[in-house]
From TrEMBL, chain A:
Residues covered by the ABC transporter domain: 2-246
The protein's name in its UniProt record: ABC transporter ATP-binding protein
Gene3D superfamilies for this protein: P-loop containing nucleotide triphosphate hydrolases
Domain of life: Bacteria
Annotated InterPro entries: AAA+_ATPase (IPR003593), ABC_transporter-like_ATP-bd (IPR003439), FeS-cluster_ATPase_SufC (IPR010230), P-loop_NTPase (IPR027417)
Organism: Filimonas zeae
NCBIfam families: sufC
């Protein structure tokens, strides 16, 4: 589904991604871990098309379509969804109205008519239930006055509503208490299917106890330096990143 | 601008920024236009054209005399443009005018114009429940639903007709809220006003439909000086809406209207404006100078006047819809959204004079600046010595889009009574790149994202508009701001 080849990107002239290679197939969940400043969130931003990043090399394909040629909204309509680390507040814009607009745009892109008010409402109810999202929050202004946890849960609710192919969760677990973490994880698990894929960006192994990944990658200094199974995450949890950094330094000096 | 557009974006944005004003066409119609110039004869000419009684001509002359004595205002937050009052024509009317007893008699070209503007002239095809009066250059063209309103004793007609048919009412109230000497533009209006609307709601009557006036400047080198007078007698209610457009011309045209509202005991007037005069082109050439005096008097106990304005047009907007709270327990409200894009200037706000006891007022102002637009909120809340327990709440917010625009606020408070309670809140914010990106990431393009954010920001004010017009106003806001983010 997602193929990233030798992706380089920089911000303000500073190279952040230094040749990322990653393939995510439909039905898979990949976790990307790594120390602070390794480029995890930058990768998410570049995939979503944030404009202050400059892609200096490489390719990104989504089901055979060139993602880097698309504007952010086109990527979204093609099925790239980013659950933001820090979702913004937009006062006065109702959550529901916003979702209706977004869903309408995505459906239109795929040649589908907008849902009727009744259909939309039914869908809203169903998804709210699925991801345990409070109906009161759904009717409020977009993220306005939401707690950190509520904002994250709203991201998962939006994910459920928009049904993207590829969902990138950028530290969705950070700042969540254990109950919220469980609710968010349950939501994601229910939304997993053979047709979609998830990329989880996280600091902590904790999230992976709830959402079990197929592959775990370690991003360090703008590159994926190691990939493995869930056990890799456990190893990192156990030993931290320093052993990995040390190992890399050794191998680089040999080369 | 601070949002860095992608390369393929900038073309589209440029096109949008240069998008033409939708209502900028000129109607080719046989007009009677007097030569430019202003003197006593001009005033006499207008008065004669309108077949006015002697007292009205005298009153106009008072206005003319004080016009001669007055200076241009100098306190506003922009440089007052040169205005040559001798170069303006003070009377322009479609030739086939006079009175139309039915729509069939109206020049079809004129009807087509209103169709193009989306104004419901034809009563059958009409938005449900809105009566419309239409002022084309200097004269009122048609008033719809007149009969139905008459049955309730409601008078809704052009002010020229009111002078003929209800002279006592006009004489009793005209100029009692905005006197002939109020300010130079009001004096000018007094001298040469040509038409406008007149509304009288009798005691205890709740007007069953929205009353609406549509103003259109068409002729070249003319000014539009309309005068509107609304009287809500005891216990009555009326909601009134005005809209306006003008053709695109390279010369600036002056619009100097006066609106007077009078609310008696327990009466309520809700006055809404959607102002979309031609704003000038992207270089600031042309556009309407909108210098307007609007004031309401809450004369009776528990009366209420509420101004709502959505100001998106005009090269310069200079207006401060005000309320005099005379009656005990009376209430004044001012809800405003003012947008300046390109090189537009708006200096707008309100004055609320608390004179009676237990009077209340509420001011919600939302300024939006984009392009090189300059937007100033100017407000005065005055509490008189007898206004015990007066209360005011003011909120003025400014939203900036881009780096080349400006937002300014000038709130004044004068209190002569220590029982007054005054609250003031103000914010200035910028449409965040993050907000736009967030919406982009959900499949919403840049233009729609801005429209969503701006409408959300202005929601509190837009909610005050009658339903049909709220939708129109939302669209207008989006159109005005199209291409403002690049």
């Amino acid at each position: 589904m997602l193929v990233i080849k030798d992706l380089h990107a920089s911000i303000d002239g500073k190279e952040i991604l230094k040749g990322i290679n990653l393939t995510v197939n439909a039905g898979e969940v990949h976790a990307i871990m790594g120390p602070n400043g390794s480029g995890k969130s930058s990768l998410a931003s570049v995939l979503a098309g944030r404009e202050n990043y400059e892609v200096t090399g490489g390719e990104v394909w989504l089901d055979g379509k060139n993602v880097l040629d698309m504007k952010p909204e086109e990527r979204a309509r093609e099925g790239v969804f980013l659950a933001f680390q820090y979702p913004v507040e937009i006062p006065g814009v109702s959550n529901i109205n916003f979702l209706k607009t977004a869903l309408g745009e995505i459906r239109q892109h795929h040649g589908l008519p907008p849902l009727s008010a009744k259909e939309f409402l039914a869908m809203t109810r169903e998804k709210q239930k699925l991801v345990e999202f409070d109906a009161k929050l759904a009717n409020r202004s977009l993220n306005e006055g939401f707690s950190g946890g509520e904002k994250k849960r709203n991201e998962v609710f939006q994910l459920a509503m928009l049904q993207p192919k590829l969902s990138i969760l950028d530290e969705t677990d950070s700042g969540l208490d254990i109950d919220a973490l469980r609710i968010v994880s349950n939501g994601v698990n229910k939304l997993r299917s053979k047709d979609n894929a998830f990329v989880l960006i996280t600091h902590y192994q904790r999230l992976l106890d709830y959402i079990v990944p197929d592959v775990v990658h370690v991003l360090y200094n703008g590159r994926i330096v190691r990939s493995g199974t869930k056990e890799l995450a456990l190893e990192l949890e156990d030993k931290g990143y320093d052993w990995l950094k040390e190992e890399l330094r050794v191998s680089e000096s040999i080369q | 601008m601070y949002l860095c557009a992608m390369d393929n974006d900038s073309d589209i944005l440029e096109q949008l920024a240069e998008r033409e004003y939708e209502y900028g066409f000129v109607t080719d119609i046989d007009m009677e236009i007097v030569p430019a110039g202003l003197n006593e004869d001009t005033v006499r000419f207008v008065s004669e054209k309108k077949n006015e009684p002697e007292w009205l001509l005298e009153w106009r002359m008072k206005g003319y005399q004080s016009f001669l004595k007055q200076e241009m205002p100098h306190w506003q937050n922009f440089e007052m443009p040169e205005m040559d009052f001798q170069k303006i024509s003070y009377y322009a009317a479609p030739k086939k005018q006079a009175k139309y007893s039915s729509l069939d008699e109206v020049d079809p070209e004129l009807l087509r114009t209103f169709e193009k503007l989306g104004i419901p002239v034809n009563e059958q095809k009409h938005l449900a429940g809105v009566a419309v009066d239409i002022v084309f250059d200097s004269v009122s063209v048609t008033t719809t639903y007149k009969k139905q309103l008459e049955e309730l004793g409601i008078i809704f007609c052009s002010i020229s007709e009111a002078v003929q048919n209800h002279p006592d009412l006009v004489k009793k109230y005209l100029g009692t809220v905005v006197p002939p000497s109020d300010n130079i533009f009001a004096s000018l209006n007094t001298a040469v006003f040509t038409d406008g609307s007149f509304v009288y709601i009798p005691k205890g009557v709740r007007c069953p439909m929205e009353l609406s006036t549509y103003f259109r400047i068409n002729a070249e080198n003319t000014g539009q000086f309309e005068r509107t007078l609304i009287i809500a007698d005891e216990g009555s209610y009326v909601s009134y809406l005005e809209g306006c457009t003008a053709p695109m011309r390279d010369e600036n045209q002056l619009h100097a209207a006066v609106v007077e509202l009078i609310a008696m005991k327990d009466a309520e007037i809700k006055y809404s404006t959607v102002q979309n005069w031609y704003p000038g082109d992207k270089d600031g050439k042309g556009g309407i100078y909108n210098f307007v005096t609007k004031r309401g008097a809450c004369r009776g106990e528990r009366s209420k006047i509420s101004w709502t304005q959505v100001e998106t047009g005009s090269a310069i907007t200079w207006k401060y819809p005000s309320v005099l709270l005379l009656g005990e327990g009376s209430e004044g409200e001012f809800y405003s959204v003012a947008v300046t894009n390109k090189k537009q200037i708006a200096d707008t706000g309100t004055k609320i004079h608390h004179l009676g006891a237990n009077t209340k007022s509420r001011i919600i102002s939302k300024g939006i600046s984009a392009g090189e637009g300059q937007n100033s909120y100017r407000g005065l809340v005055q509490i008189g010595p007898k206004a015990n327990n007066a209360r005011n709440f003011t909120q003025c917010d400014s939203l900036l889009i881009g780096n080349n625009c400006g937002a300014h606020t000038f709130p004044y408070i004068e209190s002569k009574n220590n029982t007054a309670m005054l609250e003031h809140e103000a914010t200035t914010s910028k449409i965040g790149e993050d907000q736009v990106f967030y919406l982009n990431q959900r499949g919403i393009d840049q233009e729609k994202a801005i429209a969503l954010i701006v409408n959300g920001y202005a929601k509190e004010v837009l909610n005050q508009l009658p339903m049909e017009f709220a939708v129109e106003a939302q669209k207008l806001l989006s159109l005005t701001l199209e291409g403002s983010v690049g």
